[in-house]
Amino acid sequence: MTDNVSIETRNACVDFPIFDAKSRSLKKAFLGKAGGSIGRNDSDVIVVEALKDITLSLKEGDRVGLVGHNGAGKSTLLRLLSGIYEPTRGSARVRGRVAPVFDLGVGMDPEISGYENIIIRGLFLGQTRKQMLAKMDEIADFTELGEYLSMPLRTYSTGMRVRVAMGVVTSIDPEILLLDEGIGAVDAEFMKKARIRLQKLVERSGILVFASHSNEFLAQLCDSAMWIDHGQVRQHGEIEDVVRAYEGDDAADHVRQVIADMKREEDEERAS
Amino acid sequence: MSAAALDHGPASDADTGPVVSDSQTFRRAFQDLRDGFAQRELWLNLGWQDIKQRYRRSVIGPFWITIATGVQATAMGILYSALLGMSIKEFLPYVTVGLIVWAMISASILEGSEVFIANEGLIKQLPSALSVHVYRLVWRQILFFAHNLLIYVIMLVAFGVWRNLTWPDLAAIPALALLVLNALWVSIVFGIFATRYRDIAPILGSLTLLLFVLTPIFWSTEALKAQGGQVADRAKIAELNPLFHFLEIVRAPMLGKDQQAYHWYIVLAITVVGWAIALFALRKYRARVAYWV
């Protein structure tokens, strides 16, 4: 375990060089609402400034939800926080073992069995083979796939693949958990089960950063929110306030409702 | 540091804050190599999986590698021994060893230049050391080579080459280790630059083909020298080809031929220079690869 699990960035910028962009398309894209701003760097290569001057400091126990338009930079921010993108300007320091859950399909091999995929996927997330073997029964149980796990992954439906991926991801103990939305494609009953496991995973992890368009989900998993707009942090604070500024009163009221519901449920649980 | 050569500003303007960017330091370059190596459970597994993948559901599986090389070596060996008037008994083992060593060299260059491009998904989705992909690739090539070695063993017995082998021929083992060491830096250097400049991979493709013809695999420098005169002088041109020396340090001991030290010196020098370039490339551009893929 790492002491002082933390993420710190200081004026971190992420500029993507677009080597094959023509300047003609530049004019068109310049004033668009979605997406980062487009400019040129000092070598005259067109760059998309996906993130600009991100300064933040997260420490153990922080649960942050990211909101913002498509292309506002939420996913890029998650990749910056995971260390995949090191800032082009400014700096970022990540302390702790990172478990990114961006694309559930990546690192999955369609030709090998579900069991083997569980192990490989675990290795990718920094586990050892031994650790994964120890967790195998539990994961197999969770996926409810039974004998099917010994079949090659290409015979699985999309939903079944998501089950395998979710089973692995929720079985590990990350210090920093970075979740990107789009964990769909599973039936409602499984989703309920996944949600409980996801919540437990969040409780186990030191830091959570979660990007989602579902305010309800956000309110359930996070205790603060960050509004990302045009690659910058526009607002950081209570979920309700941020959602109110971003989406308006209706959405904020809904968030308050969800939080109140959760509290009541908790109280009831405690009482019984 | 002056303005960065490729496409990003100097990282030095970060040193105003308490958190200083260390993206472009040797420390991070070495750490990448170390962390990648520590994940050997992963890349050993993936490299082996790559091989099995290619021959999935085929009955003899990866031994198709052996058979394909065997057929090629035999056909070419017979053809060229007839064309050049050499004895099959000597020429066939020569061609075989040449081919399997060349297969490893050319794969290092060709697949090495694609190593990061081919792993785009993994690089963008999972934070891991860049070197993991390089180790996986080189491990796969070692496994390929191991399969091909089977033909060598058959040739050893079939043509009685084993009678030529003596203790000094164990030099083939460190020679192979050098080959692997070079495959690593080649993959790092070409991998990084071919990711940034997408023309490099096709250029290397043509160049490798050219070098294949220029490297004495189907012909030998001895045969040229034996002809005397101008042709013998031309044999010296082959010495300019660096790959010839790599081939020679492995092939000569494997066939039990006379070994010459100067091949080793050249290869060692290339290894040192190559790794120096690789470390500089890792230092400066390691963090850029995720942006370029």
Automatic annotation (TrEMBL), chain A:
InterPro entries: AAA+_ATPase, ABC_transporter-like_ATP-bd, ABC_transpr_TagH-like, Bact_Polysacc_Export_ATP-bd, P-loop_NTPase. It comes from Rhodococcus parequi. The lineage of its organism: Bacteria, Bacillati, Actinomycetota, Actinomycetes, Mycobacteriales. Transmembrane segments: none annotated. PANTHER family: TEICHOIC ACIDS EXPORT ATP-BINDING PROTEIN TAGH. The keyword Transcription does not apply. Residues 26-255 form the ABC transporter domain. Keywords: ATP-binding, Nucleotide-binding, Transport. Belongs to the ABC transporter superfamily. It comes from the Bacteria. PROSITE patterns: ABC_TRANSPORTER_2 (PS50893). The keyword Nucleotide-binding applies. This is ABC transporter ATP-binding protein.
UniProtKB/TrEMBL annotation, chain B:
Residues 1-20 are annotated as: Disordered. InterPro entries: ABC2_TM. It comes from the Bacteria. The chain crosses the membrane at residues 63-85, 91-110, 142-165, 171-193, 200-219, 262-282. Residues 45-254 form the ABC-2 type transporter transmembrane domain. Pfam families: ABC2_membrane. It is found in: Cell membrane. It is a multi-pass membrane protein. Keywords: Cell membrane, Membrane, Transmembrane, Transmembrane helix, Transport. PANTHER family: CAPSULE POLYSACCHARIDE EXPORT INNER-MEMBRANE PROTEIN CTRC (PTHR30413:SF10), INNER MEMBRANE TRANSPORT PERMEASE (PTHR30413). Belongs to the ABC-2 integral membrane protein family. This is ABC transporter permease. It comes from Rhodococcus parequi.
